[in-house]
Amino acid sequence: MIKTMLRGLLFVSVTAASAQSFTTETKKDANGYSYEVVKNDKTGVRVYTLKNGLKVYLAQNTDEPRIQTYIPVRTGSNNDPSDNTGLAHYLEHMVFKGTSKIGTQDWEKEKVLIAQISDLYEKHKAETDPEKKAAIYKQIDQVSLEASKLSVANEYDKLISSLGAKGTNAHTWLNETVYKNNIPANELEKWMVIEKERFSELVLRLFHTELEAVYEEFNRAQDNDGRLVNYALMDALFPLTPYGQQTTIGKSEHLKNPSMVAIHNYFNTYYVPNNMAVVLVGDLNFDKTIQMVDKYFGTFQYKELPMKKMVSEQPMTAITEREVKSPTAERLTMAWRTSGVGTKEAMLSDIASNILSNSGEVGLIDLDINQKQLALGAGAGTSIMNDYGYQSLSISVKEGQTLEEGRQLLLAEIDKLKKGQFDEWMIQAVINNMKLDRMKTFESGNGLATTLYSTFIEKRSWEEVLSEIDALSKITKADVVKFANDFYKNNYVIVYKRKGVNDKLVRVSNPAITPVNLNRDSQSDFYKDFQKLTSADLAPVFVDFKKEIQTKKVKNTNVSFVKNTTNNIASLYYIFNMGSDNNKKLSLAINMLDYLGTDKMSSEDIKKEFYKIGVTTSVSAGTDLSYVTLTGLEENLPKGIALLENLMKNVKPDQEVYNTQVETILNQRANAKKRKESISSALTNYAMYGKESRFRDILSEQELKAMNVSELTDIIKGINNYEHQIFFYGNDLDKIVKTLEKDHNLAANKAIPPAKVYPQPETKGKVYFANYDMVQAEMTRVAKGVKYNPQILGTVNVFNNYFGSGLSSIVFQEIRESKSLAYSAGAVYRTASDKDKSDYMQVSIGTQANKLPQAVDAISVLLADMPRIDRQFSNAKESSLKQIASSRIIKSNIFFTQLNLKKFGIDYDNRKDVYASIQNLTLDQTNNFFTAEVKPKKYNTAIIGKKENLDFEALKKLGDVEEVTLEEIFNY
Description:
Elements: E1 24-28, E2 34-38, E3 46-49, E4 55-60, E5 66-73, H1 87-94, H2 107-126, H3 130-148, H4 155-161, E6 166-172, E7 177-184, H5 188-198, H6 207-222, H7 225-237, H8 242-245, H9 252-255, H10 260-270, E8 277-282, H11 286-297, E9 320-326, E10 331-339, H12 344-356, H13 364-370, E11 377-384, E12 388-396, H14 403-418, H15 425-442, H16 445-457, H17 462-473, H18 477-487, E13 493-499, H19 525-530, H20 545-548, E14 550-554, E15 557-563, E16 569-576, H21 586-592, H22 603-612, E17 616-621, E18 626-633, H23 637-650, H24 655-672, H25 676-689, H26 701-706, H27 709-718, E19 724-730, H28 733-743, E20 766-771, E21 776-787, H29 793-804, H30 810-818, E22 825-830, E23 838-848, H31 852-864, H32 870-886, H33 893-902, H34 911-919, H35 923-933, E24 940-945, H36 952-956, E25 960-963, H37 966-970
Parallel strand pairs: 4-8, 9-13, 15-19, 20-24, 20-25
Antiparallel strand pairs: 1-2, 3-4, 5-7, 5-8, 6-7, 10-12, 10-13, 11-12, 14-15, 16-18, 16-19, 17-18, 21-23, 21-24, 22-23
Helix pairs in contact: 1-10, 2-3, 5-11, 12-18, 13-14, 21-27, 23-28, 29-32, 29-34, 29-35, 30-31, 32-34
């Protein structure tokens, strides 16, 4: 997987108080291990350095008996050889393939064949004659088939899933390759046994099939114009360094001509302990854990890293323009290059970026462009890497508005920044909100662990990261204005994303790979020995809702409360049992709150007041539930309630603002019909529900234009009169209740209007096709199942693990590992969203268009006959049990889990029933479920792709094919 991210610097504070002094202290534990802690760091992070140079970051989080693990390697695509781009990312994939012990039945025989494959790839890379090259590839395919007879596919994934691991994955980016798992705490040592072996050596097993899967990922990138814009932006910003000259996915010609020798050299050079770290955050014991890490990872040998050739970018002195074309709507991105992480320029850039656009929607761009609806959307952000970074501004234009006009809108906001035309309080508000965001991040084990691995990658100390907020707090308005005048010159890159045909798409032939053997019933000796290892038992804990949720009736409204024992961030929710099914105009009315003010305060003033106190508000209307939410420091929540209630009671209609919003909505609808993702989603919905669907039941253009905004403001003013409930997650309920009694209508008793019921028609074996210019074809097959049945929940849980979800599932193995037909493939049985609705079975795959016939056949075979592999089933069952046993429903999720269960008439933690049913589940019973609920169903198929590249004879095997128009599936 490739990591693409736009992020600011790491800002941290665990209180909203004044700046603290952070200093590093060195200590020793009872066993003599030295570690560093930072004074006043409430996260309690410990940083160890083993004798071999391995960095170890440990922190405790006891929310549940699980541990978030990351193994970051300080190398990425920037270190790819220039003639083997994409190598770091491809290597990341191969680290999942095992070693001389994991994933093999007979290593002595297998290694001979792998060596032959490596030699053939070197010949293949050097050969220039296309026919000879094809002949060599055929040899590679043949030898790979023989080698696969000795391998055990996905054995690493089977090992790791047997622990009850979740989120098993990895990503590669410019300077990093990061491997991730979330494991039960009692399985920590077994995880180390696996990972120690995994990183001890590299075996390029099942190489050519995985290479083709990576190429499918390359195809996905070609169909993602966000990636294409980013490639053009980086290329222009960084013309001399790998930051811009080497994409993480790599070049097509390099992916098709890899060198196994080069990959081994890269692994041996960079995957060394002094260039790696182990990050563990969760329910752990510090002293025992560092001993374990040393035992397993301390044996890796220190190795000097190569001297890095330093190449610097020259200062930008002119505007560089690029153009990208694709079928989607037009937008542009502008960017100025900055220096790297931790530098003063990077910090100033981030503050400036937040003054332009921020989460409170009170930046210059937010108020002058978005609030006034001068474009469909605009924003600013920073992306900071080790050596360089950039600040970017982007804008999506309206129909009839040119990109050049959008550019001028953005430059006008830059000009205001240069002139200091922003409120003085904005800088402190930005910093306070960064503190709040960091508190939220560190609340979860994964949030803290992610920050820690980033700290390692960026070569910074934990003290530097924690102290950065102090440096930011010293920045003044004068500093920002001076920075803006020095920084924003005619030295930027601008990328115009225009609507048109992308003539740079790379389309390649189907390589005709012979499916390799999976050997599902086989096991390596390592696996057999591993199964003998034991761990302490971990009993499941099921939540007692009556004990954990305090509920009392205040006048006519139930107020529920769950205590926050972690920090002083609180959330308040008004929850209405109605949504768009009850009133189609509700969502439109609620969205207008973003643009309307009162008779005494403008919308801009209201947003500024919320941002000043660090309280965020959100209002959303779902299909059956609507939420009004306030989140922030608990001490400021009463002020937030007063602000929100004043807005909702006194919202002032403005027809001109509404008319502009209608124009925006119509533009957004038009743009949705240009986006592959939107079309695919709409098409799948059409395949499931047909013409009488909730998705298609929308307000028409005529209805939108004819509406008086007063009708919408009346809905807003009246919503609190409907029966509803309130949930508070925080510390002092009494204080909040007093505020609500003062400001909120707790006597509300208006009956909820009846909801429209949408049919769930039977799926009848139809194929719906939508034409779109893309490299891949995306296919989703759906079948209506039985009505909600709580008795099958345990079976469904294990079936999904076994058959279609995860790296070791049957579908993933067959489609990707054996046949190389896709980068992603999965199948899931989705249980109903409430007790009166039906389940659905869904299978999805994205594949190169010329592989579609093979994909159709492969999916059809799997849906007709579920392979029965006892060991794999036991693995899936064990994984499901361990995941439930080690998971805890905590914090605000306690309330929302209960709220969801009420839809099914359940008033207790039903995981208890699921766990019990899984304990007794057999493969025969799971197969009976497949035979009854998956195999005999008639599947409707949704497929999107370029018409001229698809084999419609293959599609006819799935049912009658109907090409649908975008107007049919969107209903506008």
